[in-house]
Design goal:
single chain, 590 residues, mainly alpha
Length: 590
């Protein structure tokens, strides 16, 4: 029966007794509480007041008005200091508030007042546990197991307490007892397997898992548990056999397929991994978004993997395309695959259709891809057409105005380019985008004083704009403007993007201009090691720095490498001639 109903019946019974008795002339009919509340006349003795206060406490606790509930419970204890139920409820309240000292004090009094009440004993055990008195808590939970042998939580907590205090074998014994009395209970079984593995009883852990499979062969969780044990023990061949056996039972179980795919992926078994991915992609119950995430994260993660497994991936992306022919995200991935397969024209047609369609939910990617392909093919007019279409369809995208501004600037129309950059600043939706737009305008401003103000504006919107920091420093180095400050800006850019070779090159050259040649050499070495383009400018700068460090032999080698990489031959020739002349002069002095 509902506790609130029980207490309501008790309340009515006691009041009915009071109402049946006629009050004597001049008698007081009510009693005021310390808070000014009125106790009904039927509760005029201490024992009845205890019932009334406790009933009110239960009521307010049910209404989640804890302060009032505690107030009434305290009144109970003022009258009856050993009232076990009141101590128990106050203990629960303090435990919820994480005031475990007070919780334990009241829980102890509750148990002392009524040692046979299991709820009071549970509260006492919990308070002991939270206070870190694990030995006492263990004793309490052993008593609870004896009293309530069908409650799995008692076994769980007792096992945790033994394991926590360095007695894992006792914890296992407790869980064995739970098996005997409760039968198989998954959370306890998982705990026991973990403990068995921790103490090195691998064979027993495996046998228990095998027994579970034998008892319930259709339960895939059991197969997964055994496979996981084999994996943790490094017995990969047995783990694979276990998973494969499970596939025979449930060939379309997603959890099993995902675990097996992870198993193959982590071990570099590429063809097996892709076979499982293909199985997942053929399932109808798996959402397309899940499949696309798997495809992006694992299947197309790097070009080398793609090349090695091209035909398997061809099948996988084909499965996607057949199952979801009108999903734009699937269509784009299929088109990207066509590009890798050398079918550029077919891919371009797909991207153009998606770019033009008003039903495309995210048109930016196909529009940008079309522009990139057309630019690669040298179709300038078509590229400009789709760029204008992109601006029309996405008028709030500042990146598109910046793209067009760069194109116009290259064509020599600096006025229109500046107008487009300004438009990009106006439409930018957030501080980062505004900062990038200001940086683009500054990069295309020939006057350093003006560009300096623009870079400053860009950094006001985004102090971590590495491009603005680097480019400001670079232009400052060209005109010799406050080189120490330029070095600070450049260093900050390198902190933000420590693997950016261009930023390291800028820092190295500023150090070089400041005469800090040894530092410049170290930074320039980093730039060259990170550069994947064999940039002739980097090689030229490194040669200049080597020469400044009196390493003429190496400097000449790098001047020649710069020429081979495409640096101006006349410039290199003059550098080498100057180097030779310097060497001759040094020899003459000697």
């Amino acid at each position: 029966m509902n506790k609130r109903v029980v207490w309501s019946i008790i309340f009515v019974m006691f009041c009915a007794v009071g109402w049946a008795q006629k009050p004597q002339r001049g008698a007081k009919h009510t009693t005021a509480t310390p808070q000014g509340e009125v106790v009904p006349e039927c509760f005029d003795s201490d024992s009845l007041k205890v019932i009334y206060y406790y009933t009110e406490a239960v009521k307010y606790a049910a209404l989640e008005e804890d302060d009032k509930a505690i107030d009434y419970l305290e009144k109970v204890l003022q009258i009856d200091s050993i009232h076990a139920a009141a101590h128990h409820r106050i203990g629960e309240y303090y435990a919820e508030q994480k005031q475990y000292d007070k919780a334990l004090s009241h829980a102890t009094r509750a148990t002392q007042g009524d040692s046979l009440n299991n709820d009071f004993l549970k509260g006492y055990g919990y308070a002991l546990t939270m206070k870190g008195e694990y030995e006492k808590a263990r004793t309490v939970y052993r008593r609870l197991i004896a009293r309530e042998p069908k409650n799995p939580n008692h076994y769980r907590v007792a096992a945790i307490l033994y394991a926590t205090t360095g007695m894992p074998h006792m914890a296992i014994s407790i869980l064995d007892s739970a098996d005997y009395k409760l039968g198989y209970f998954e959370p306890l079984a998982e705990m026991k397997r973990g403990l068995l593995l921790d103490v090195g009883l691998h064979g027993r852990a495996i046998r228990e898992a095998q027994t579970m499979i034998a008892n319930d062969p259709q339960n895939i969780e059991r197969h997964l548990e055994l496979g996981d044990i084999y994996e943790n023990l490094g017995r990969d061949s047995l783990a694979e056999v276990t998973y494969r056996d499970a596939l025979k039972v449930a060939p379309e179980n997603l959890k099993l397929l995902l675990q097996l795919s992870d198993f193959y992926f982590s071990r570099g078994m590429e063809s097996e991994f892709l076979d499982i991915i293909q199985r997942i992609f053929r399932l109808n119950d798996v959402p397309v978004d899940t499949k696309l995430k798997l495809y992006d994260e694992f299947v197309v993660r790097d070009e080398a993997f793609y090349r090695r497994n091209f035909f398997a991936i061809n099948t996988i992306v084909g499965v996607l395309h057949v199952k979801y022919p009108h999903n734009e995200q699937v269509e784009m991935r299929y088109a990207y695959h066509q590009i890798r397969a050398g079918e550029l024209d077919k891919a371009l047609q797909t991207f153009k259709r998606l770019a033009r369609s008003p039903e495309t939910k995210e048109p930016k990617e196909p529009l940008l891809t079309v522009m990139s392909i057309e630019d690669h093919l040298g179709h300038t007019d078509s590229m400009r057409y789709y760029l204008d279409m992109a601006i029309e369809r996405l008028p709030g995208d500042s990146e598109l105005y910046i793209r067009k501004a760069y194109i116009v600037a290259e064509e020599g129309d600096s006025l229109q380019a500046e107008q487009l950059f300004q438009r990009a600043i106006e439409v930018a939706q957030d501080p980062v985008a505004k900062s990038e737009a200001y940086t683009a305008l500054a990069d295309n401003t020939s006057e350093f004083k003006k560009s300096k103000k623009l870079y400053k504006k860009a950094l006001e919107y985004n102090p971590n704009n590495a491009a603005a920091l680097n480019n400001w420093a670079y232009f400052a180095s060209l005109v010799g403007d406050n080189l120490p400050h330029a070095l600070q800006m450049s260093s900050r850019a390198c902190e933000l993007e420590p693997t950016n070779a261009n930023y390291l090159d800028t820092k190295a050259m500023i150090l070089f201009l400041l005469g800090r040649n040894k530092e410049a050499k170290k930074v320039m070495q980093q730039a060259i090691s990170l550069d994947t383009t064999n940039d002739p400018t980097f090689l030229l700068h490194y040669a200049d720095i080597l020469l400044a460090n009196n390493e003429a032999f190496l400097a000449e080698i790098y001047y020649k490498r710069a020429a081979e990489a495409g640096e101006d031959e006349q410039l290199i020739k003059k550098r080498i001639e100057a180097l030779k002349k310097m060497q001759y002069e040094l020899q003459d002095r000697k």
